[in-house]
Batch of 3 targets.
Target 1
Amino acid sequence: MSTFDAAPTALIVHAHPEPHSFSTAQMATAAQALRDAGYRVDVLDLYSDAWAPTLGREEFGPVEGHFKPQAEQQRAVKDGTLDAVVKAHLDRLLAADLLVLSFPLWWFSLPAILKGWVDRVFVMGAVFGGEYGLFGDAALAGKRAMLLFTTGGSGESFQPGGALGAMDDFLFHIHRGMLEFVGYQVLSPVVTHAPARMTDQERAAALDTVQESIALAAAEARTAVH
Ligand SMILES: Cc1cc2nc3c(=O)[nH]c(=O)nc-3n(C[C@H](O)[C@H](O)[C@H](O)COP(=O)(O)O)c2cc1C
């Protein structure tokens, strides 16, 4: 049974250190487009919340001997001893029908603060593993996820054969290795290329395009296979 039947919830996890960046404006535009499409929108702004991205031993209280992060995650889920901040983020993740990861592309990937959010919040035993399997058997199966990001490189440079290579190739580790791995059905990414080289007029037009793309994605998420 899809959770999209009632008013759906979108969780946007945003990672940009500058509140006046194009990425942050893009995130705000996407949030409004989702609200306009009938979503309840929850925004996690990792930099402004000073999110600590490192998964380490200290998160689990006293760990004797050899530290195995995923074993500790599973034990903490079972014992109800997950770190309070991680638990709060996990609850917001589990409550969301649609997850949007919002970021500037850094080294063909997520900024470290966002990668660390995945490390700590995609908890083994709670979103996959333990009583859950992987992919279609993972805890987030039936939900949707998508990437919303900006690049330094131009659109042409990311075409197959372009200087930076085909985007689908290097997004694989996020789409397959993180999102589908925990059960999500992945929607097409919304990307703005090279906002730093845009005029104010071009930036306004690019935000209009983001608004339209997110409206389409919101509709696709509601009608995607249940
Ligand atoms: C650490 C770092 C790594 C970056 N790596 C890439 C990259 O791999 N590919 C790319 O196209 N742009 C890269 N960029 C450029 C950013 O993606 C670009 O400046 C940003 O998306 C523009 O959006 P903003 O103005 O909202 O920051 C990188 C920037 C930084 C700071």
Target 2
Amino acid sequence: MKKILFYLFFVIILIITMPIIFTNKFKTEEVISNQTVEEKFDYGKYSTIKLLHTETGEVEELDLDSYLYGVVSSEMPANFEMEALKAQAVSARTYTIYQIKNGSKHENADLCDNSAHCQAWISKENRMARWEEDLREEYWKKIVTAVNETKGKIILYNNEPINALFHSNSGGSTETSLNVWGGDFPYFQVVETSGEEAYTSYNSETQITKDELITIMLEKYSEFKIDFSKEDCIKIVEYTDSGRIKKMQIGNIELSGVEARKLFNLKSAKFNFEINGDVIKFIVTGYGHGVGLSQCGSDALAKQGKNYEEIIKYYYKDVEISE
Ligand SMILES: [Zn+2]
């Protein structure tokens, strides 16, 4: 009898407490989702971003972290590791603040949505539509988490936000900014990464005919001449410490690897070439300018167990991350 009473008592307690447990659970979730919407981090004068939509010419005002959802989801594949996405979120946040702080390239906006000019951005609606339907919710949640869980985090050098540049795939080693744009930043060094070769952006090839090469060169250099019967009509003169082309000679013109990349539309300045009959084949390693954080490298490092702070400090030298 005592035993039955005990069980009865236990069941009654359960009946009373279950709804409380569940209600509390829902309450907690509600508070969390409200926080993501309402409790914005105070970034002071960088709290609101004026974003120029290049297609329509419209300028939209967004709070910094909401703007970053669109940047991170556009700049990095959502199937990358969470720590890589977080490293991307902090880099993009820092890059954004650096750009505004050092004078926007736009008159009526802080940044535009063009990756070649400022930083890629995509609306939630367009982003979702491009993901497979059964992955949409999971992917968007991942992006939002990467931004929210790094809220307020900014990369600093000497207490100042850094020019947190990033690129797709360094092809094994990153480049200094000096070799790409001429500006020298102490936090951009040559950094070697293993694991990037597992990504499709690691290898690429571009082929052009001899005639196409002549046309392209003449557009830029009217004095251009080349004698394809000479074995060294195209040659690499010098490499940078990261293994990219520093100087090359094409006919009578000397040009940098960065310039050759642009002229022949190559994915990076780390390349070799072959001349086969009428065709010049460029064999390219890596994708992007190669300065700062490598996105594929970040994913590879995350897979090796590194967290986002370690990834950031791996690619940007001697930096601190704000609390
Ligand atoms: Zn822009």
Target 3
Amino acid sequence: MHDDAMTTSKPAASASRGLGDELPDTMRAWVLGGPDELSLQSKPMPVPGRAEVLVRIDAVAICATDLEVISYGTPAMIEGGAPFNKNFTPGHEYMGTVAALGPGVDEFRVGERVTVEIHAGCGQCKRCRMGMYTSCHNYGMNYGDHDKGHRANGFTTNGGFAEYAVNNINTLIRVPDQMSDEEATLVVTAGTSMYGLTELGGLVAGESVVVIGPGPIGLLAVAVAKALGASPVILIGTRESRNAIGQKLGADHVIDARSEDVVARVKELTGKGADYVVDCAGTETTVNQAVHMTNRGGRICLAAFPKSAVSFDLGALAVNNIYLYGIRGEGKSATHRAMAFMEAGRFDASLVHTHTFPLDDLPTALKHARERIDDAIKVVVSNQPGITGGAKGK
Ligand SMILES: [Zn+2]
Ligand SMILES: [Zn+2]
């Protein structure tokens, strides 16, 4: 699947660098000072506790939410407040190699390649007991007298822009040998798309699915919906290059939001409107479009975090018996299901990976992601030796 030998890391490059007995006492990690102030520092090597392992981070993808956290703090929350000047390391979409085991861990071995999901719930609240650990009622309660054991690396605990991180075993997914580091970082993104579709009902074979917004989650929502048998799958976006990737990932139709009446076009393609709409843009315009393009009794998933209050046609929602679901992250083991599709080659998630840079060049990588330089979609930062940095395949 990969013809991009130049900048795509293969598992062979991992070797046994920095694992087990070779573990150093300190590691390099990017630390968030004030807003937009990141510095590369030396930190003590984290130590895994019960039901945890130490992961040597081999690659970490940049998410739009990382950019939010670094500039505005939310939705990260460290010790009950903003994450600034708390020795906090952001980054949450990473993969790597098991480097050490906590006491009693026999579920994994040192040297196994793993990718991670973000949230390890407290395991004891009402939502965790339902499998909704991304909505844990003890979110961020992992310090002082409040310590309920919740972890969301890169949000409430240290994350992946570093050489190592500690993960609860429940957040680990094994990576098959043939999958590149970069593709493995995308499993959690596909898992978020999977979770959204699961919450909408899951059995989408033969149902129409519209995805608004061809960012990484939107593009992989197209891929997952197609793999689940949805028909037709329709993608709405404003960038032709991204809509084209959506077609490669399985969109039956793409709609250019700049030149077409998207609601009319969806109705034309589906008859009475869409059964399911996944809004990955989260703007006032797209939320209203979602409400008006969903058929009576249909369902909308809001997979984006709007920055401010959004005004929308609630009356149309009620009178048409439309359901609206807010989803957070990748609950109910959706990431494992996404990996099953990716391992089986049901879609090529690596189509959304565009750039790789070494960890030391994180600021350059963040700039590419933020400004979408060179049509950047998923920008990955790698710890593998020999990564020089730049666009995939160039
Ligand atoms: Zn993310
Ligand atoms: Zn919980």
